[in-house]
Amino acid sequence: MSLSDFMLEVQQLSVQYQGVQALTDISFRLASGSVIGLIGPNGAGKSTLLKAMLDLVPTSKGLVFFNGRTLKQQRQQVAYLPQRSQIDWDYPITVWNVVMMARTTHTGWFRSPSRQSKEIVREALERVEMYDLRDRQISQLSGGQQQRVFLARAIAQQADLLLLDEPLNAIDKKTESLVLRIYAELKAEGKTLLVSCHEWGDALHNYDELLLLNGQLIAQGSPTDVMTMDNIQRAYGAYLERRWQIDQREAAFFC
């Protein structure tokens, strides 16, 4: 694969918090039109990595390039979905207006949305099956519905790169199936998705590649290549390696 095939490149990205090294020399490349799972234990730095790429937390060193230019120069081409815990769900705003926020950079802060932006928002809400609830306050929705709304906002931004922080956390099965379907659709459109996740086992095969992280990048590649016993032990420790072995034996026993 040539350099021109890569959309996103991270070079030696490092983050320190009050003298504590959160991330050390993270480097990787991601191809366009792919869905990448960012995995690792709690505290591994997954959310920190996404924020550092977007310059939302200070970095001690490192560069992030997007289509050959620094990511800072083209933030409008990146859609970011933060963790649920970072969103004020009690803020008085409707579903429609949450998604319309994605069009601010296109219309400006003090101008009315264009007919095109309204159509884009409508299509995004229909895609996540939330258009009928467009006038509902975001606080009145279930967790799965709220997550769909914020995914619609990411879609409405029409970005080429989507950074999604645990979008499948604490949602219902219907929403999970819908989100995974949208992943596949966005991939077919040539979008690149970097998704922080906590999935395990067969669910990891929803991703084209995995980045296994624990303060540093431990492995990158296909789910089969990344989730080896050696890599699991390095990332999660001996306890989870033992759990993985037990799960595999139980699966073989009941097959």
UniProtKB/TrEMBL annotation:
Pfam families tied to this protein: ABC_tran
Superkingdom of source: Bacteria
Protein name: Metal ABC transporter ATP-binding protein
Gene3D superfamilies reported in the protein's UniProt record: P-loop containing nucleotide triphosphate hydrolases
Family: Belongs to the ABC transporter superfamily.
GO molecular function, one term: ATP binding
Organism: Tumidithrix elongata BACA0141
Keyword terms, alphabetized: ATP-binding, Nucleotide-binding, Transport
This protein's record includes keyword Zinc-finger: no
Segments forming domain ABC transporter: 8-239
Transport is among the record's keywords: yes
InterPro entries: AAA+_ATPase, ABC_transporter-like_ATP-bd, ABC_transporter-like_CS, Metal_Ion_Import_ABC, P-loop_NTPase
